[in-house]
Design goal:
Elements (H helix, E strand, L loop, with lengths): L3 E5 L4 H14 L4 E5 L5 H4 L4 E3 L5 H10 L2 E6 L5 H6 L1 H20 L5 E3 L2 E2 L23 H20 L2 E3 L1 E3 L1 E3 L12 H11 L2 E4 L7 E5 H13 L11 E2 L3 E3 L1 H11 L4 E4 L4 H6 L8 H7 L7 H17 L1
Parallel strand pairs: 1-2, 1-4, 2-3, 4-5, 5-7, 6-8, 8-12, 9-11, 10-14
Antiparallel strand pairs: 11-13
Helix pairs in contact: 1-8, 5-6, 7-9, 7-12, 9-12
The protein binds 2-amino-3-ketobutyric acid (AKB).
The site of 2-amino-3-ketobutyric acid has 11 residues, from loops.
Amino acid sequence: MSSKILIIGACGQIGTELTTKLREIHGVNNVIASDINTRNLDLVNSGPFEIIDAKNYNAIKDCCKSNTIKTVYLMAALLSATGEKYPMEAWDLNMNSLFHVLNLAKQKTIDKVFWPSSIAVFGPTTPRESTPQHTICEPTTVYGITKQVGERWCEYYHEKYDVDVRSIRYPGIISHKAMPGGGTTDYAVEIYHDAIKKGNYECFLSENTSLPMMFMEDAIKATTDLMQVPSESLSIRSSYNLSAISFTPKDIFESIKKQLPEFSISYKPDFRQAIADSWPSSIDDTMARKDWNWKESFDLETMTTEMLTQLKKKYNS
Ligand code: AKB
């Protein structure tokens, strides 16, 4: 029997496209998608799917054992904005799901783990420009705290128990398939939808808030590349800094306006402004470039073209 892959949280923004890519690489039947519900029917109907609550250790273990799963991608999490509304739920989901998967790897039920971290591990005391891999991490959001602590545990399980866990500090991810949910960087997806649907957008961050961002195709490539690199090449077992583009709401607005001249924007910062202000504006990802040849393909303009092309098709069909 061949070894298989399990994606936990497969119906989310990244999980949806990661599932498609992993099925292209490894074959549809070798990749089991799972989520707490069947909210994304296209994904549910696209191959093997199981309902799994990421907080339920036995459900994950039983699925891994009965399907000879050897690699788990743990994509379920409560993000930064939702985490501030439900701090204990964020801690519970983000930490317990990680322990479940790390412990299955420690017991050698599975061989390899991918776990996403985030730029949210950084905080107001971190250098904001070109944030280094190793630097001050004093996050001020619950989500950031879970990711920072999670990174420490990943490194610990690797050092003490030889667990092959790999991780990326994702920036904000922009995509046109599944919507993001509950993040501070979500504006950079919403803006494209509203540009096509309404011709205007009310942004919840102020116009000059610069944040690190990345187009989904690049994020998926980074993830699948990292998971294919020989273990010896990896020098970071907490989580890799990863960077592609940094822009402000004003930059993305201007990029869209070049293609949709009537598009307008207004700014109404809310509680997410303070979260954004605590994060870096750009990231130094030298280690990822050196260890596994990371290189992005999309800049702001090519991303805007792709987003608008795909969303026009979606809303016109
Ligand atoms: C969020 O905004 O919470 C996420 C993230 C940067 O991890 N997109």
